[in-house]
Amino acid sequence: MNVSQAIDAFEQWLRTFVLSEWTLYQFAVIALGYLAASLLASRTEPALESKARRIKGNPDLLRVVIAFMRRLKWLFLTAWLWLASVVLTQNTWPSQRWLVSTALTLTAAWFIISVLTKIIRNPTLSRVVAISSWTYLALYALRLDAPVLSALDGPAVSLGAVRFSLLLVLKVVVLAAALIWVAVLIGNVLSHWVQRSGDLSPSIKVLISKFIKIGLIMVAGVIALSATGIDLTALTVFSGAVGVGIGFGLQKVVSNFVSGIIILLDKSIKPGDTITLGDTFGSIRDLRSRFVSVITRDGKEYLIPNEDFISQQVVNWSFSSDYVRIDVDFGTAYDSDPHEVVRIAIATASTVDRVANEYKAPVCWLTCFGASSLDFRLRFWISDPANGLTNVRGQVLMALWDAFKQAGVSIPFPHREIIMRTPVEIRQSRGD
């Protein structure tokens, strides 16, 4: 076909499909549907969105529902174009409804893609995925996908029996990303289901959740490679060499990962435990594959590598029991009755809310005849160490201060006696 014939064919296509009377009718149908859908959506979206925001406890579902509500215009336009397509199919030839059919496909695809991609929390990534998906579907609807795919499949590099082309790489990346995303989504749903189980310990829940996520991701990767036609046996040597290099570079990552599994299996720590590691005192918030999240009383969150919990000494305040004993030392003057002091101290400690009287009653002992005071030690138990230790000590000390003040028991302070002598007195004391 020469240039003049191509031009004649293009002009004939314009007259038949673009400049024909039926094409103008289809433009009018699409424009009328768009205006009606916009008007109807502006009336219904605010009321429906206000009702949808009552959903609590499931932010992902709320994002999808809100995205659905804000795109009702495209839903109404899709319904209008579908109705118009049905009517035109029964009364016209395919050449007289092609524009409505194409608009229906593109509108429905954009509506579905834009709603589902709202599950992706990153706005930029969500936009990129939506535009890329809709662009491919648009090329498919316009029958332009074959030339584009052929152009991408042209440049290629052969590695043994595997031919790596730009199209193959794009397929692997897109399919792997999609399957891994679905695997993570399913893993999160299953993890929430496991976390709600009342028959499993917290450590076993975390371990099962991690195995589910890792297993689903590995399966997704294998399915992606197999679906794109890559022979996994052809990559054995290459993956072995890469694996050795990655192993040397990621020794700490692997060590922390294995340490995390050991921690979960031996149940030494679990979410909610109160621990002390070095100078860090706080409660465990989460167990990850690489680190343990520990949040302290001042709001700081420490991400401590799992390996430290294996190699260092860890104090778990709630390993076998939530009850923790606390000692409070104080002193009274020598003119105080120690029996009365012990009685007041025990009665006062029992009135503090956080003291676990139901577990063990407080006790108080005289420990020493000090230089300036009678020294006592008050011991009591609490069941919520995660709520802090210093604050409960302060509450008990304040209660003791009030009780001793009311009972007339004085709390001494150190006294020092200084004797001043003149030089004459010093010589006389020496016998000079």
UniProtKB/TrEMBL annotation:
Q: Which residues cross the membrane?
A: 22-41, 61-83, 98-117, 124-142, 162-190, 211-230, 242-265
Q: What UniProt keywords apply to this chain's record, in alphabetical order?
A: Cell membrane, Membrane, Transmembrane, Transmembrane helix
Report the residue ranges that make up the Mechanosensitive ion channel MscS C-terminal domain in this protein: 326-411
Could you tell me which PANTHER family the record lists for this protein? MECHANOSENSITIVE CHANNEL MSCK, POTASSIUM CHANNEL RELATED
A GO cellular component term found in this entry reads: plasma membrane
Concerning Pfam families, the annotation shows: MS_channel_1st, MS_channel_2nd, MS_channel_3rd
Where does the Mechanosensitive ion channel transmembrane helices 2/3 domain lie?
210-251
Membrane topology per record: Multi-pass membrane protein
Question: Which GO MF term does the entry hold, naming one?
Answer: mechanosensitive monoatomic ion channel activity
Tell me what this protein is called.
Answer: Mechanosensitive ion channel
